[in-house]
Amino acid sequence: MVIELDTKLTKQVEEICAARGVRLTSQRKRVFELICANAKSSSAYELLDDLKKSEPQAKPPTVYRALDFLMEQGFIHRVESTNSFISCCSCNAHKHFSQLLICDQCGNVVELQDDNLIAKLAKNAEQHGFTITNHVIESHGVCKACSSK
């Protein structure tokens, strides 16, 4: 399922990059747009295939460098279980941890931010003297649309 690209999101990313003094090259921007244009998570090779439509010379390192940049800047998330990528719902407007709901039938991914869940996880870790530096919370199942089919 392809969704319409939100040009405001791209503009926000451009402004964040300018404020941080980092370069949002045309290839990085295009990879971000390709990720945002899909409700499903995208693998690096799916992104490469899509990128080649506008840039036939694109090679895997081009996509991997763009993905590294976009993750470093907090604009995308890596879906660990499927080795794929989705856009961040807040575009790194603030530091956050997310829960990803992944439909095993259609492949759509929804990012949720639940401060109560994160607080509970942090409290549980703290009780064991553990400091959490990163969360990867992925829940697999069937989305509402696929359930009703």
Give short descriptive properties of this protein.
149 residues; alpha+beta; three-stranded mixed β-sheet; 6 helices; FUR; iron; repressor
Topology diagram in text:
Layout: H1 7-20, H2 26-36, H3 44-54, H4 60-72, E1 76-79, E2 84-87, E3 99-103, E4 109-112, H5 115-127, E5 137-141, H6 144-147
Parallel strand pairs: 3-5
Antiparallel strand pairs: 1-2, 3-4
Helix pairs in contact: 2-3, 2-4, 3-4
What is the end-to-end distance? 16 Å
Q: Which percent range fits the helix content?
A: 40-55%
State the strand order across the main sheet: 4-3-5
- Can you tell me the overall shape? globular
Task: Write up what this structure looks like.
With 149 residues, the protein is α+β, with helices and mostly antiparallel strands. The chain has 2 domains: 1-87, Arc Repressor Mutant, subunit A (Orthogonal Bundle), CATH 1.10.10.10; 98-148, Dna Ligase, domain 1 (2-Layer Sandwich), CATH 3.30.1490. Helices cover 44% and strands 15% of the residues. It has 6 helices and 5 strands. It has helices spanning 7-20, 26-36, 44-54, 60-72, 115-127, 144-147; strands at 76-79, 84-87, 99-103, 109-112, 137-141. The chain has a 3-stranded mixed beta sheet with strand order 4-3-5, with no helix packed on it. The protein starts with 6 loop residues before the first helix and ends with a helix. The model has no long low-confidence stretch (mean pLDDT 89). GO terms for molecular function: DNA-binding transcription factor activity; transcription cis-regulatory region binding; zinc ion binding. Homodimer. Its cofactor is Zn(2+); Mn(2+); Fe(2+).
